């Protein structure tokens, strides 16, 4: 449980997912509706990221909020098994740990049913013990907009403190839940060193459709390095040096891209911890995500560092050391 010397502090969601598959629109027409599988898995961007970075060999403290219930115990036992520090996970007897029920159609399309009273929606600034920040190198805010109570003001308070401690700040995002706009988070983005939105989300938020314009608009908010995920094409980097695309791994058959973004961030952050250049961090991020998309679930792919290193060796062989 000792958190001293933690490499990364990750703030965000740690919940339980219940995927049901396959479910059709006729689900209410019958009294009983048998499906091929109902499983219970760990979910939430922050715990996914914490899991993968830990497997890649670095020390992670997870900052999240859970209830005092069975789902919360499931979250804690996952952390203990994986080796994620739980010192800063707030357990609040007054809230329910979020359980997202995923209705997955035969064609893979999915709808998530989420508890408005759950920890995902109730997690707030006061749940954080910011004294933790003095011990770590990197702060990762797993997903802007995922926990609606973390608005611009809350993020700015956290990020200011992280900067006072000399930390590197990374952040990802999900689509807004409450129709928030770019203006609502511009101030917070000004503190972010590495921002990992995917193109669709970033395009929606900026109102731009051209890749370069989307990235330029985020860069103009003060993000030091925009690292935009562009699916099977890899990622698009925009920073003071200009713009570049770092291509994805070749010859990958994607069977489940759930959590690909979380794995991408995990690989990138691991690269930063290992002192790699931004381009090499992006290559490592692409390799980590490429392993992930070949397996079901966000944490079903990368089991150990060797999995990503093998993908990296293939990447360097495919593109050459110079890329
Ligand atoms: P998100 O999961 O956040 O929607 P993307 O779909 O852009 O993000 O995927 C994240 C990363 O996963 C990409 O930047 C890329 O590195 C990797 N990736 C996704 N699809 C493929 C693919 N078909 N082949 C190789 N890499 C992929
Ligand atoms: Na994702």
Features:
single chain; 323 residues; alpha/beta; UDP-N-acetylmuramoyl-L-alanine:D-glutamate ligase; nine-stranded mixed β-sheet; five-stranded mixed β-sheet; 10 helices; 14 strands; 33% helix; globular; binds adenosine-5'-diphosphate; binds sodium ion
Which small molecules are bound? adenosine-5'-diphosphate, sodium ion
Q: Indicate the structural class.
A: alpha/beta
- Head-to-tail CA distance between termini: 42 Å
Strand order across the biggest sheet? 6-5-1-9-10-11-12-13-14
Q: Which residue ranges are poorly predicted, with pLDDT under 50 across at least 5 consecutive positions?
A: none
What is the number of strand segments? 14
Total domain modules: 1
Average pLDDT works out at 95
Based on CA atoms alone, the radius of gyration comes out at 19 Å
The name of the CATH superfamily reads Ribokinase
Q: Describe the main β-sheet briefly.
A: 9 strands, mixed
Order of helices and strands: EEEEHEHEEEHEHEHEHHEEEHHH
Number of helices: 10
CATH fold-type name:
UDP-N-acetylmuramoyl-L-alanine:D-glutamate ligase
Helical fraction = 25-40%
Strand portion: 15-25%
Can you characterise this structure?
Helix 6 (199-206) crosses helix 7. The chain is built from ten helices and 14 strands. It is an alpha/beta fold. The chain has one domain: Ribokinase (UDP-N-acetylmuramoyl-L-alanine:D-glutamate ligase). Helices cover 33% and strands 21% of the residues. The mean pLDDT is 95. The chain has a nine-stranded mixed sheet with strand order 6-5-1-9-10-11-12-13-14, with helices on both faces. Strands 2, 3, 4, 7 and 8 form a five-stranded mixed sheet that branches. A hairpin with a 5-residue loop joins strand 7 and strand 8 (110-113). The chain has helices at residues 45-55, 70-82, 119-122, 152-164, 186-189, 199-206, 211-220, 260-273, 278-293, 305-319; strands at 8-11, 15-21, 37-38, 41-43, 60-67, 89-92, 99-104, 110-113, 138-144, 168-173, 194-195, 225-229, 235-239, 242-246. Adenosine-5'-diphosphate (ADP) binds at residues 198, 229-232, 234-235, 248-249, 252, 254, 257, 260-261, 264, 286, 289-290, 293.
């Amino acid at each position: 449980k000792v958190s001293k010397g933690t490499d990364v502090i990750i703030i965000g969601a740690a919940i339980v997912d219940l995927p049901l598959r396959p479910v059709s629109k006729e689900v209410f027409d019958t009294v009983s509706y048998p499906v091929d599988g109902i499983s219970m898995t760990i979910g939430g961007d922050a715990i996914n990221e914490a899991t993968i970075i830990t497997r890649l060999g670095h020390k992670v403290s997870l900052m999240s909020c859970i209830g005092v219930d069975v789902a919360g115990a499931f979250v804690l036992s996952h952390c203990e098994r994986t080796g994620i520090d739980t010192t800063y996970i707030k357990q609040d007897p007054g809230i329910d740990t979020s359980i997202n029920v995923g209705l997955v159609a035969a064609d893979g399309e999915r709808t998530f049913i989420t508890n408005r009273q759950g920890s995902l929606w109730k997690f707030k600034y006061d749940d954080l013990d910011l004294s933790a920040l003095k011990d770590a190198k990197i702060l990762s805010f797993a997903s802007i907009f995922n926990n609606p109570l973390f608005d611009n003001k809350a993020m700015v308070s956290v990020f200011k403190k992280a900067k006072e401690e000399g930390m590197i700040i990374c952040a990802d995002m999900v689509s807004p839940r409450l129709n928030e706009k770019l203006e609502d988070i511009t101030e917070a983005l000004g503190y972010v060193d590495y921002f990992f939105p995917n193109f669709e989300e970033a395009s929606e938020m900026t109102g731009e459709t051209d890749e370069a314009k989307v990235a330029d608009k985020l860069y103009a908010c003060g993000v030091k390095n925009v690292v935009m995920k562009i699916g099977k094409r890899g990622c698009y980097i925009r920073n003071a040096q200009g713009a570049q695309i770092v291509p994805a791994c070749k010859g990958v058959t994607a069977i489940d891209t759930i959590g690909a973004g979380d794995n991408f961030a995990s690989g990138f952050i691991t690269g930063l911890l290992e002192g790699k250049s931004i381009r090499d961090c992006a290559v490592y991020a692409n390799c980590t995500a490429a392993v992930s998309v070949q397996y079901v679930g966000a944490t079903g792919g990368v089991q150990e560092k060797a999995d990503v290193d093998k993908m990296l060796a293939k990447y360097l062989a495919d593109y050459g050391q110079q890329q």
